[in-house]
Design goal:
By secondary structure, this protein is α+β, with helices and mostly antiparallel strands. The protein contains four helices and 19 strands. A hairpin with an 8-residue loop joins strand 6 and strand 7 (170-180). The chain is globular, with a radius of gyration of 22 Å. The relative contact order is 0.17.
Length: 370
């Protein structure tokens, strides 16, 4: 009887310890996942160059995928179905190695340099994350562009995420990096609606926009870096995010300002699947939704490349014409902005770099302010 009591006490103590640990862990995770909200962002290394009407400029958008997504990488949250019905799911929770993060980040930097863009909008740029082996991609990138104004906003900050169990995602500190050759008059972090219920909120980013203002004679150029939700069942929060973005664009246009929104919209911008633009051995993923000009407020239109994909699914390693690809990266422009060209970058110095360093290809827009 005495042995039984001791055993019961030990078992109960272990159980209570596990419950207490789990409770403390959830409380800590919840505290670290608290939303940042709308705040002013300090502009670093602000340049003095000004923008002129009638001159051609180049803006680039690129989701660098925290340096993990080379062609052999697959991500555990991505699932898919092959045309023969075979179900697929990604493998990794973090990058395969620190060496891979450095290789992919440096490769992305080479792509950035080659475009010689005047403005850059970058997504999934980590500062100190388990998933990218604490490589500071923000410092790596900005150090290569010393003559650029810099604005960085956090849109993913979490405590230790212990999943998947075989390759834990860990602590995440990541954000949107906006850089330009010109003087930034103002930078603001604008919060986007996201799921806030437990435990769903731990699986999405603290989504936001980075709004930057530039003076253009008697008006302003308003550039907005965006990264909208992807893992949003039914697209409920994507619709709320789009509503906020539309209201923001409409307000700026009413003042006569020029508006360019760039980034990873996590919507197909050219209806690539129904148009049969890109070959694939996979069925249409559940997360894909379409964004058309008709979804935007009057006076705005989408500028996106429909000749080359900008995003690949990461449920399996990349193989051309096998993996599902689409165009979710691009731009939205106001009617007083003339689009000269828009291209997704798939080659560099004659080499095919499609999805070589990220699950996204960079999108480049050439434009003129009327």
């Amino acid at each position: 009887m005495r042995k039984l009591k001791i055993t019961l006490i030990v078992v109960l103590s272990v159980f209570l310890a596990i419950v207490a640990f789990a409770g403390i862990f959830v409380l800590t995770l919840n505290a670290k996942s608290k939303r940042i909200g709308n705040i002013d962002i300090e502009v670093l290394n602000n340049q003095e160059n000004t923008i002129e009407k009638g001159r051609e400029y180049t803006v680039l958008s690129y989701n660098i995928g925290f340096g993990a997504y080379d062609r052999d990488y697959s991500f555990f949250m991505d699932t898919g179905v092959m045309n023969d019905g075979t179900k697929t799911q990604g493998k990794y929770g973090k990058a395969r190695s620190k060496e891979n993060v450095l290789k992919n980040t440096n490769g992305s930097i080479d792509i950035l340099k080659a475009q010689q863009a005047d403005f850059m909008m970058l997504e999934e740029v980590d500062t100190k994350s388990t998933r990218s082996y604490k490589v500071n991609q923000y410092d790596m990138i900005r150090n290569e562009f010393e003559n650029f104004s810099v604005s960085y906003v956090s849109n993913f900050h979490s405590g230790y995420l212990p999943y998947p169990l075989n390759d834990m995602h860990g602590v995440v500190n990541s954000g949107l990096l906006t850089m330009s050759r010109f003087k930034m008059e103002e930078s603001k972090r604008i919060e986007l609606p996201v799921e806030t219920k437990f435990p769903t909120k731990f699986f999405d980013l603290d989504r936001c926009l980075n709004l930057v203002r530039y003076k253009v004679e008697d008006h302003e150029l308003v550039m907005i870096t965006a990264h909208l939700s992807a893992y949003d069942e039914g697209g409920v929060y994507r619709q709320k995010q789009l509503k906020l973005l539309n209201e923001l664009m409409e307000d700026e246009a009413s003042k006569g300002n020029y508006v360019i929104v760039g980034g990873d919209f996590n919507h197909d911008l050219v209806n690539s699947y129904e148009r049969g633009l890109f070959k694939s051995d996979q069925k249409l993923p559940d997360w894909i939704q379409i964004l058309n000009d008709s979804d935007l407020v009057e006076g705005f239109s989408i500028a996106a490349d429909d000749k080359n994909p900008s995003c690949r699914d990461a449920d399996i390693p990349y193989k051309k014409d096998v993996v599902f690809t689409s165009v979710v990266d691009g731009f939205i422009v106001s009617s007083n902005v003339t689009v000269k060209s828009v291209n997704n970058i798939t080659s560099l110095n004659g080499e095919d770099v499609s999805f070589m360093y990220s699950d996204h290809n960079a999108s480049v827009l050439k434009f003129i302010l009327n």
